[in-house]
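A.,

Following up on our hallway conversation. Structure tokens first:
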């Protein structure tokens, strides 16, 4: 089994980016020494999974920050590959997770965005949700989950961790019988 962790930063009103795709608002809450567990998560995972819009952020920067972890970018386009550790895939989430399992990769960070997270959720592939709520209302933008028709899904509360910056990190797991 591959444990898929959806870890993202969200505004209080449920957006991971502004409507133009910007995440500049995240840096306003940067506090020295607070990384909200991102470093620990990154060192605990065997794979990174991301949608093409999220990958395009790295494309704009022209550099890939995680060359030591195999990464899969979901896309139907022929995008540039920034590093040999990156695989572009047009397979569906379940097929890619099957591939990870076959390679013995046990834990993956689903980095986003909201469209890819909704696809993983539709296939009941997300084991853990770690959502850092930033104290800001954006009013509109890219939602944590793109609208989907998978229906209500009950989660099990694990923890709520407050940070000095006003950020609260919520952790939930898929309920056992969901
Ligand atoms: N706040 C945070 O922590 C955080 C984290 C991650 C991302 N973000 C932001 O979120 C925004 C991107 O999120 P998004 O929801 O717009 O897009 P996304 O999930 O990153 O990418 C969606 C795109 O991926 C491709 N794709 C291929 N297979 C797919 C599948 N099975 N399911 C879904 N998509 C699939 C499609 O494009 P093509 O096939 O046409 O390529 C689709 O339009 C960016 O602005 C990014 O900076 C914020």
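Then the amino acids I'd put at each of the 178 positions:
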């Amino acid at each position: 089994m591959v444990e898929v962790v959806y870890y993202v930063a969200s505004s209080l009103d449920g957006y991971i980016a502004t409507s133009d795709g910007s995440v500049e608002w995240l840096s306003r809450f940067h506090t020295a020494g607070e990384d909200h567990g991102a470093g620990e998560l990154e060192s605990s995972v065997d794979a990174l999974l991301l949608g093409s819009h999220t990958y395009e952020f790295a494309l704009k920067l022209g550099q890939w920050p995680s060359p030591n972890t195999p990464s899969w970018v979901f896309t139907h386009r022929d995008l540039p590959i920034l590093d040999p550790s990156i695989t572009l895939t047009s397979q569906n989430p379940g097929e890619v997770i099957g591939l990870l399992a076959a390679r013995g990769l046990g834990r993956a960070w689903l980095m986003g965005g909201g469209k890819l997270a909704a696809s993983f959720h539709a296939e009941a592939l997300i084991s853990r949700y770690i959502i850092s709520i930033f104290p800001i209302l954006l009013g509109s933008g890219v939602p944590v989950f793109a609208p989907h028709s998978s229906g209500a899904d009950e989660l099990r509360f694990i923890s709520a961790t407050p940070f000095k910056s006003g950020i609260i990190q919520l952790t939930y797991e898929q309920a056992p019988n969901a």
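DSSP finds four helices and ten strands in the chain. Curious whether your intuition agrees with the design.

B.
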